[in-house]
Structure formats: C-alpha cells, structure tokens
Amino acid sequence: MSTTRDIHSPDFLAGDEFSIPTYRVLTQEGTLHEGAEAPTLDRDKARDIYTAMIATRVLDERMMAAQRQGRLSFYMQCTGEEAAVIGATAALDDADMIMAQYREQGALVYRGFTFDEFMNQLFGNELDYGKGRQMPIHYGSRKLHYMTISSPLATQIPQATGYAYGQKLAGDGLCTVVFFGEGAASEGDFHAALNMAAVHEAPVIFFCRNNGYAISTPAIEQFAADGVAPRAFGYRMHVIRVDGNDILAVYRATQEARRLAVEHNKPVLIEAMTYRLAAHSSSDDPSGYRSRKEEEAWREKDPILRMKRWMSEQGWWDDEEEKALQERLRREVLETMKQAEKRPPPPLDSLVTDVYAEVTPALQHQLDALKAHIRRYPDAYPKGARFLDPEVSRTDDANDKGES
Hints:
Layout: H1 43-68, H2 82-90, E1 97-99, H3 105-111, H4 115-123, E2 146-147, H5 156-170, E3 176-181, H6 188-200, E4 204-210, E5 213-214, E6 217-218, E7 238-243, H7 247-264, E8 268-273, H8 292-299, H9 303-314, H10 319-342, H11 350-353, H12 361-376, H13 384-388, H14 390-403
Parallel strand pairs: 1-2, 1-3, 3-4, 4-8, 7-8
Antiparallel strand pairs: 5-6
Helix pairs in contact: 1-2, 1-3, 1-9, 1-10, 2-3, 2-7, 4-10, 5-6
C-alpha cells in the first residue's frame, strides 16, 4: 500500500516547473560530449550497425522512387530516424520481441531481413509471408521476432504489454520493445498499456520516436506537457529522454532499459528526440506544414552522418568503404526489386485456406463464384490467369526472361 505525505493547506503543484533532460553522448562532429562516456561497442558491431543504417536509407530512397514511378502503391520512409530504431535494436537480444508501428524497417535490416524479403512483401507476391493481404511496409517475421505490423494506430502498444507479461511468466529472460510515434502516444491505448505494464511489472520497453510531427500536426499542438517522457511518472515507471539522432546514446539507454526490464521486471519508457526528414508517407506533402529551412537545419543533424564521423574518428571507416557499400546496396535493391515484380501473386485459393482449419462450404462457394466472375470478365482482370493458375504465371515469367 502506497503512502503519501499529508499537507494542511491547498498547495498545488505546477507541472510546468519540471523538465526532463536529454541524454547525449556524441556531438554532431562525431566526438564525445564533455563528461560523456561511450558505451562498450566493438568495431564489428559498430560496422554492422552503420551498414544497417545505410542499407535502410538506400532501401527507402529506391522504394520511394519506385512508388513515384507507379510500380508500388504506397511507401513510408525511416529517413532521419535510423539511429533511434537501429540503435535500440542493436542493444537487444536477438530473441527479444519487436512490435513496430510502421517506420522501423531498420530493425529488420539489422536482424537480417533480406532485400528479397522486403520486396516480396512490398509487391505482395507469392513469396510474401503475409500472402499479399497487407499494404506495403506491413512487414512481419517470425524467425526474427518481429511482430507483423497493423495499420490501426497504437494497437501494438497494449499488445506489447501482454506479450511481455507472457515472457515474464515463461521466465525466459527476454523482453519486448514496442516502437511508436509521439502521435500514437496521444491515443488511449498508450495509457492503458503503460498502466497495465506498471501494475503487472511486465518486462517491456516503450520506445517513443518523437519526430516532431504526427503526420501534419506539430508536437506543440498535441500536448502542453514537456513531451511524452513525464507521463511515465504517473505510472511510477522508469523513464529516460535521449537524443534520438545519437546512435551511442540510444544504444546505451536501451541497454540499461533492457537490464531493468529483464532483471527487475520493470517497464521502461524511452523518448527519443529525433526528426522525420522525409514525408509522413508517399501520400504526404510536408511542404504544407513545415518550412524547408527547418528541414535543412535537421539535415545537418543527420544521424548517419554523425555516426560516420565517429566511426572515422575510431579508424573503423573510410570514404572508399562508404562508396563501395553504397554502390553494392543500390545494385542489390534494384536487382531484387526487378525479381520481385515478376513473381506471381499468391494463389487465389489462399484467400480462404487460412480462415478456418478446414475451408467451410460457404467460403468454398464464395471462392468458386469469384473464379467464375474472373473467367467471365477476363478483360477486366488482365492478370486473372495468374490468380487462377499459377503455372500460367511461371510460363509468362520464363518467356519474359527469354525475351530479355
């Protein structure tokens, strides 16, 4: 039972008198801040982290271009937030569960999700783990402990608490990290999740990417408090605010958060202060709500540039390696995209085979009616044959390769 100190006069506490500091390690020049200590990070792991950051940026640039060319229906970039996502992921155990919002493809890149796997999901072809049922960027990977993304905002936050509570009961020494933006932190699911995690002492890390905008709404119009971090005190939860563009600060903060979660079953809130350099999505035009001058100021704080400078200071990276890596990754992205585009869609029967253990008569009737409809109006479904008979698709693909 908690205890409180009694007072005998109506002395109100003012919330505007309190501000949470920001944890920083690296300057933008790639040197350590005075008094700051770098976390233990060896050369190989640092290079793996940096490679994942570059790979994510290259993937995002190429796929946004593909969307503009009409080859892809939708896309969302991680640009500007790579340090927050990848730095946090690198501090976890590979078996820890990640529940993402929709801008955390860098976490998958770091854990080994291939460009081929990305492309299969983006194009919804027959090798897509989701069988073409999701919008692009709704990735998921059972083997990499990355929960499939859901479109509704913030639903993953209470789910993360529940999953982490299960990890606690299992006693496997693992935790869950859930990523979300400051806009999602304004949803009721956020508060329900934090309260449940605090009450049940679930080993979950709530990782808020405060990138300044919930689509077009600036943070200053979302909440009057000092950001998202102070909300943790309402749930008696550990919290830290970190420079989200500082890879070393994010890495070290997440290491400590994981220790608290796993060793003491303490939920933790991390607020990473960063900036979305790209549009919210391929459907967004940020020029309508923020200035080019503001964007350019944040480009000077690019997290990739900051880590590159630090890596160079350590003697772990040089311009020749940078050039070779960029060229290799761009080539791989283009090659895998071309391959994924040619793969046929999932078989039409897969629409009904995963609903129940056995396909019900009603579902079978609907599937038969759909196939009959496609056959009756073949001109309206130019790829109808691909859906109805995968072998037709494979023959077409073989012919395409022969012609080329």
